[in-house]
Amino acid sequence: MTITLQLTPEDVKALGIAYKYLEHPSMAARLTNFVGLPIERSLKLLPKTWYENLRQGMNRTLLTALESVISPLDSQSGIAAQEGYHKLLAATSGALGGLFGLPAVIAELPMSTIITLRAIADIARSEGENLGDLHTRLACLEVLALGGRTEEDDAAETGYYGIRIALALHLSKVPEKVLEKGILEPSHPAMVVLIAAIAARFGIVVTEKAAAQMVPILGALSGALVNIIFIQHFQDVARAHFTMRRLERKYGPDLVRREYDIFSRAERK
């Protein structure tokens, strides 16, 4: 007799919540509500040279943060995430950056990224992930990419699985010997391309964050609040992504994908 697995009502509900955050990441909308004007208008306040400085600093920041921040964390899974604690750290970092304007945004980026990745890893661990596994640490980086959507994504209707497949293609070019070591080799060409792809998407959200901080509101308070919005955005995406991975471990990727597609079809009706 063949036994057909079905998601429990609780897991269907969790999948529906994950779908919401993975298909409709709302960083720009949240920032627009905060600053009181469309974030696209705020983007025009950023100098052109800022984008190049951001690109140069992003790749270094991601690699440094991944190995120095996630690796030392306790790899025991199932520990409840301390989301409020990481929001407090983000607010403190943002307040300091808010005191000194745009130049401080680049300077503060490594700290914001470190705090964000710690928060993501904390959620991954709470969803049963083993942080000692390099694939799990790379999945934490994936969250940074999943949180940033481009106009091209919207035009091509590239959703969660599309982005995930694209990143997996980059990862597939990294030799298994490199992955088996359990450590990143940032100089490997395939790893450079993978990190660059993630950094490009993460940069979208960082740019939106910087644009919001350019709007003169309340200095340090503004920086703190923007950083709270920033980290909440990635905590939501992380919870959704690692919920998906938890369900895939429980039911298998194919069944979870079919159930996910049901939400997608229902939304298009």
Automatic annotation (TrEMBL):
<protein>
    <submittedName>
        <fullName>EcsC protein family protein</fullName>
    </submittedName>
</protein>
<dbReference type="InterPro" id="IPR024787">
    <property type="entry name" value="EcsC"/>
</dbReference>
<dbReference type="Pfam" id="PF12787">
    <property type="entry name" value="EcsC"/>
</dbReference>
